[in-house]
Amino acid sequence: MKAPLEPADIASKVQDARQGVQTAFAWLHRTFAPLVYAIHLGMTSREQAEELTQETFVIAFRRLDQLRDATSFGPWIAMIARRNRPRREVLGRDLAESGEPVWVGTSPESMALADEALRAIRRLPGAYRETLILRLVEGLSGPEIAALTGLTPSSVRVNLHRGMNQLRQALGVSVQTEGEE
Amino acid sequence: MSKTPDPLWDPDLQGDEVLQRLTSALGTYRYAPRQGNAWSARPAAVPHRRRRRWVRAGAAALCACVMGLVVWMPWRLQWQDNRHWSIATHTVFSPAALDVGSTLTTEAGQAATVKVARIGRMEVLPRTRIRLLDTRTGHHRLELVSGRVRARIWAPPGYFAITAGASETIDLGCEFEMERDRQGNGSIHVTSGWIMHRVKGQETLVPAGSTMTFTAERGGVPFATTASAEFRATVQQLDRAMSQDMRLPDIEQLVANQAMASDSFALLSLLTRYPELASGPIYPKLAALLEQPVDVGHRAAWSRGGVHAMNLWWEQMPRPPKAWWLNWRDAFG
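Above: the input entities. Below: the structure tokens describing the complete assembly.
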């Protein structure tokens, strides 16, 4: 597993960004874009999620002085992302069809599974939804998710396992109980 | 933390079939910012003069080219997760491809050219060992275990980086050569564009025409290739002293005396790394080289580490254009 982020690194970059250091903005964007995108992907189509991700960072960087605890940049921008909802509610059928990826080499079966799984994840409670997208879509480990979201590792683990069980039920596959805390 | 292996917690562990299929399928939705969506750092604004020729072409040819680019550029930057890089071997002993997690070693007298996804090429020189750490759209990471590599990359800043121990050398759109010994000491020479060297929170920008040495613990000050040996030695002595919170007024004066016009970037890097040096003789020397007035307010702001004061002079630095006319073939992978 890759080493998770250090709170001191996050605080240092936030301080630099407040001073106007462009590389610090770039670092914050590069590091936290998967988190923000995961939140938006849980709400809307991929195309809109990418646009909303950019919007969320613009909003956050404008308000950076309002962030009290620099180490809490992750939970803070996550809150902004959750409030920055799509301008109109997207119908369920639109979520898969508009602007979703057609990756070179992806089989139709795989695309169908991805589409079905993403729809099911979007119906899960928010905490499970975001954690599962970070794990299954972004490929992040538990410690990395905890470092990005500011959740405790045990909360992340519970969200992962409960969310995964609910996802398995929604997809009609056997539910695993082992490994759950 | 659970003691039992938990693939849901650790993606490096192999999960059951459902988890594997879900991870593989949903990975296609992974965040991959388009070129215009990446938050650009300062050097991303390095001049774009490539279009000058196109403007002179006829309108029809221009439209065709633009249409072609619209399709081709995103394709060039896309890369399937963990897809191997191909190797144009120079010896019969080298493998044909470099997979994620695998290493490529060249012996004395051997060399190889590795295609960096579709975004560039890298020469692996003799007695070198590299390991491919990660490769996917917008994120290609390689470890230089030891030896020497020469990379030419055509991609937005941050797409390609080489790690070496605790340090990371991030391509900001350029051509550079990097060497490292087994103890973690080495050097980077940039011939086109920029790179950023980062180790333990210390970030150093290195422009074309400059060389920077580094150790496992920290990066040095970038020097122009024309810098004299005396100037390098004096700056390094000052850098070492300042890193231990020691001011050496005599050495500062010597640095100022020895600096030539081509050493402006080294002085700028030094002042940026240690803003308190602005109170000494290096500040007026750099002001003279950049033809800037010695302003009391600006100097005081710099001494306090004021970013706006620093930016004012960073903007004065001539930025060498990327030598695209030499490396245009790289764009075609």
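Note for the figure: Chain B has a mean pLDDT of 84.
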